[in-house]
From TrEMBL:
Residues 54-132 form the RNase H type-1 domain. One of its GO terms (molecular function) is nucleic acid binding. It comes from the Eukaryota. It holds the Pfam family RVT_3. This is RNase H type-1 domain-containing protein. SUPFAM superfamilies: Ribonuclease H-like.
Length: 135
């Protein structure tokens, strides 16, 4: 994995712009209905004493590269940590989302945060993560 160096704000702005363009060009309407929640939703802070990690993943260029990223914030909206990685791998967008979720969970574990909310926009992945049944 290659970390992309920039400020957290530049990372968020760049990721949002690139992801919006990618989704508009590449995600079929049927996949949008099953995977992606409302793309226009506004960030809401976690309850006091909790940390929220938002994550996202996307397939880049010709489908042979993946970009993932995430940001951890406290209830006041202050950025506590973030990650951004890009690597060569041919996967679909749901796998890219799962890789981003795994990295978000690793971020929480590495910082030893115990009260954490993990939030992403792939509804099918979120449903699977919230389900204790084996799949």
């Amino acid at each position: 994995m290659e970390n992309i160096s920039s400020t957290p704000q530049q990372t968020v702005t760049s990721a949002n712009s690139f992801l919006a363009a990618y989704r508009e060009a590449n995600i079929s309407p049927s996949l949008q209905n099953t995977c992606y929640k409302n793309r226009l939703s506004k960030w809401t802070p976690p309850m006091a004493g909790m940390i929220k990690i938002n994550f996202d993943g996307a397939v880049l260029q010709n489908g042979c590269e993946v970009g993932i990223g995430g940001v951890a914030r406290d209830s006041s909206g202050s950025v506590l940590a973030w990650f951004s990685c890009r690597f060569q791998r041919q996967v679909d967008s749901r796998i890219a989302e799962a890789l981003a979720a795994r990295e978000a969970i690793d971020l929480a574990i590495n910082h030893r945060w115990s009260r954490v909310l993990i939030e992403g926009d792939c509804l099918s992945l979120i449903n699977k993560l919230n389900n204790s049944d084996l799949d």
